[in-house]
Amino acid sequence: MGFFQTVKKSVYDVAFYATAKTESFSVALKQYTLFILCVAVVISIPLYIAFGVWHSQVKEMGDIRAKVLAVYPDELVLTFQNGQMASNVEEPYSIPMPAEFDVKTPKNLVVINTRGSITLNDFERYDTLAILGGDAVWTHDPQKDKIEIQKFDQFSKASFVLNEQKLTEWVDLAFKVGRIVVIILLIFMPAFIFVFLWVGYLVYLLFGAFVIWLMAKLRKVDCTYGQSYKLGLYLLTLPILYSVLTTGPLSMFHIPFGFTLILAVLAYANLGPIKTVKTTSVSPAPNNMPVSAKGSESVEGIKVGDSESNKDGKL
User: Fold this and answer.
1) pLDDT digits (tens, 9 = 90+) for 155-173
2) Nearest CA to 166 among 58, 294, 52, 74?
3) Rounded to whole angstroms, how far apart are CA atoms 282 and 149?
4) Which candidate in 126, 162, 277, 305 could, as Cys together with 78 as Cys, close a disulfide (CB 3.0–4.6 Å)?
5) SS3 (DSSP) at 230
6) Chain centre to alpha carbon of residue 19
7) Helices 3-11, 237-245: inter-axial angle, 10-degree rounding
8) Quick check: 107 and 96 in contact, CB under 8 A?
9) Are 39 and 197 in contact (CB under 8 A)?
């Protein structure tokens, strides 16, 4: 049976599931693996398209590395030691928000004030997104209207000096690593998606097999848990397609527990008893059957000719 024909039958075919119940597990696993591979390729296509759009937008922005480094002032030197920060500039010192950002953002990206006290009103006073204090960084989320304070010693207790040269080294390393990561993701993205889905649904089926087994019991069909798991490799076809289609832009059509509900309905529909059609067989006429005077007689729709006709091979 072909792959796509099996996919079609896995949606609804009582006779197919009656046969699949006695087949080897490897046959079902092979079909499941090929199906997940196709799904992984289909999912990868819009992701590649999205990456292409993002990459073209990045190219239009120009040299991002240069723009990142341009944000950091040439004269600024920050010294971190024992969870405390100090600067070499007159404070409060403001780093303006880059022009590439939305006009609705605050005027300043960061304000450095390591020598004075910081209050919540300073965000409005300095019109800034973040404030670097002596022992912590204060950040403001305009959308949530929330202010978070994170101590420097939470990140690292090591002592170091941050200047333009050091920042350049960090940015170059980040771009180098990021480029390698992007290349690896682009090459192996379908493989990563395949492994994630293949393993994930097999683990889910440990629970799903119980649902299938329960549906079989409701239909009064003999089916062990192991057979239920094997049949689940086929029954997952439609639920997986539903899950893929209701992801992203179509997430509005997602139904809570819809995956399991579809699995249960398919199991109930496909695991019913096979309907048999009663047929009547026609017994051959006995050799000693008398021949009518007319030379022929019809028995159950079969015409028996006279002896001379039979000799000629005619009925």
Assistant:
1) 777 788 989 899 999 989 9
2) 74
3) 92
4) 162
5) helix
6) 31
7) 90
8) yes
9) yes
